Amino acid sequence: MLNIVINEPDVLFRQGLTYLLADFFAQKDRPEIRIDVHSSPAGILLADMLVLSLAPGECFTCFTPSLAGRKGVAIGLVDACPEWDALPSCFEDMLFIARRAPLMQMRLTLEKAWARRLLHDAYRRPSSCADCQYRGLTPQQVRVMQELHQGLSIADTAQRLGIAVKTVFSHKYAVMEKYRLRSDYELTLFLHRMAEKRSGFSAHSLIP
After folding, report:
1. CA dist 39 → 8, 22, 46 (Å)
2. Tens digit of each residue's pLDDT (9 = 90 or more) over 76-131
3. For residue 161, which phi and psi values (nearest 5 degrees)?
4. Which residues contact 108 (CB under 8 A, 6 or more apart)?
5. In CATH terms, is domain 2-123 a member of 3.10.450.50?
6. Quick check: 68 and 89 in contact, CB under 8 A?
7. CATH code matching the domain that covers 139-206, chosen among 3.30.565.10, 1.10.10.10, 3.40.50.1860, 3.40.50.300
8. Cα(74)–Cα(71) distance, rounded to whole angstroms?
9. What is the pTM of this model?
C-alpha cells in the first residue's frame, strides 16, 4: 500500500489530482494507494509521497520540523516554479508542479517523483538546519508585515509604528523582492499563510 498525503485546500483541484495519481499508479502496477487529505503531522512525516500546496513565496521560508524529517518524496504545488539554488534545506529535493501546467507536464513530474521514491534510500539526505539558506525578515520588517496583515494602510502603519511612509513602502517592497512576490495579492496570500503557521510571525519562522 502506497500512502499519499495531499495538502490542498482547493477541493476541485485536489479531486482532479487524486484521479491523476490513481491513474498514474495504476499504470505502474501499483493500484493499491491510500490518499489522505486530512493527515496529521505524523502522517505527513510517514507518507511515501507528500503533495503540498504552497502559497507564493512560502517555499523560501523555514518549514522545520514539518518537512525536515519526512520519509517520502515531496511535490510542491505552486503558481510559478522557484529556482532550485535558492531553496531552504527542507525543499532541496522537492519537485514542483505549476498549477497551470499541462497534464503531460504533471505526469512527467510524477515520473521523476516516483523514480526518486524508488531510489529513496540512496537519494534522500537529512535536511541540515545549520546550513539552511531560508529567507527571514528583520525585526522591523516583521512589525510592518504584522500591521499590513491586520489590514492597516501604508499611512496607518507608518503612524502606528512612528516611522515615515517611505520607510513602510521600502520594507514592503523589500519583503516582496526577498520572497519573489509579484503583486499585493501574492503578498496577502503569503502573509495569510505565515499567520496560519504555528509560529506565525515569531522570530523562529521569519527572522534569521
Report:
1. 11, 18, 10
2. 899 887 776 667 777 777 888 998 899 999 999 998 888 877 766 444 555 566 66
3. -90, -10
4. none
5. no
6. yes
7. 1.10.10.10
8. 9
9. 0.77
